[in-house]
């Protein structure tokens, strides 16, 4: 597996941002027999290493299958912010975001056709993940489960659910634990969540920023993290970090979709469709597992049982009434997150 080189993250992000800005502000991609075709993938922030590898795999496949070269421009950031950038005019041909709600917002803006979630298998989620704790080696604060994050003196790092899809999954996983622990008593659940967020010392705009704060800047005692971010960090720094799986977490389903309006206008629909469908092939599913995501193919997932805790109790977004209901309840202005975080 290609590891992250944290010292190169900033210049790499600048390069990606510059290339994406040129794609977003310019005309539709120019195509010719020599130049091939260019598509833009607007994604959330922890996926950049995976898609860098996947794009090379896809380019070889597309050339062999269609006889045409394809170039893929990547853009990464907090999932909510990325969705807004597409709504505001970024020329994404596909989006690969942290949660279905962010894609639904693009659909409501008229850029994605209704029914996108059923266009690909597994609610258009070619890979899944979950939420875990990343702690420093030795786990000096003895963090084992969600209540330990509320202890005095425990410094928690997690991104902001107003801008980060991963942060929304983090919050819902904690909320589900509280719901189980307090038998659905909402007052106690709100107090639990409020006390947890009182221990949050840094709330970055995206999941990768939160990982950087914890790993590179050395802040915090525990990072509430995407499992793939935690797995990659431990693989890169095995002597410095360890993963704690809480007793209850959530099945996080990042979603993918063609941005129909842009792909039709840019003449990239065939390539955009192939780009997403290829994520479900065995070759791509194995790459997904190598980069710390859970393959949607259950047989291939079992090949990575040494990497993932497949026995953790996972709730799903359906336990919250689906993403539209969950977002309206917890994350809109004046929702439960604002209520508990302001207290």
Describe the structure.
A five-stranded mixed sheet has the order 7-6-8-5-9. It has two domains: 6-127 and 254-302, Periplasmic binding protein-like II (D-Maltodextrin-Binding Protein, domain 2); 131-251 and 312-341, 3-Layer(aba) Sandwich (D-Maltodextrin-Binding Protein, domain 2), CATH 3.40.190.10. Helices cover 44% and strands 16% of the residues. The chain has 343 residues and is of the alpha/beta class.
**CA-based gyration radius:** 20 Å
| H/E element sequence | HEHEHEHHEEEHHEHEHEEEHHHEHEHH
Question: Might you state the CATH topology name of the largest domain?
Answer: D-Maltodextrin-Binding Protein, domain 2
The secondary structure category is alpha/beta
How many separate structural domains?
2
Q: For the record, what is the CATH homologous superfamily label of the largest domain?
A: Periplasmic binding protein-like II
Number of helices: 15
Strand content: 15-25%
State the separation between the terminal residues, measured CA to CA. Answer: 44 Å
Parts with pLDDT < 50 across at least 5 consecutive residues: 5-33
The CATH architecture name of the largest domain reads 3-Layer(aba) Sandwich
Helix content: 40-55%
The total of beta strands comes to 13
Draw up the topology in text.
Blueprint (H helix, E strand, L loop, with lengths): L8 H17 L11 E8 L3 H19 L3 E8 L1 H9 L6 E4 L2 H9 L12 H4 L2 E2 L2 E6 L19 E2 L7 H17 L4 H13 L1 E3 L4 H9 L6 E5 H10 L4 E4 L3 E3 L4 E4 L1 H7 L2 H9 L4 H9 L3 E2 L2 H5 L10 E3 L7 H8 L5 H6 L2
Helix pairs in contact: 3-4, 6-7
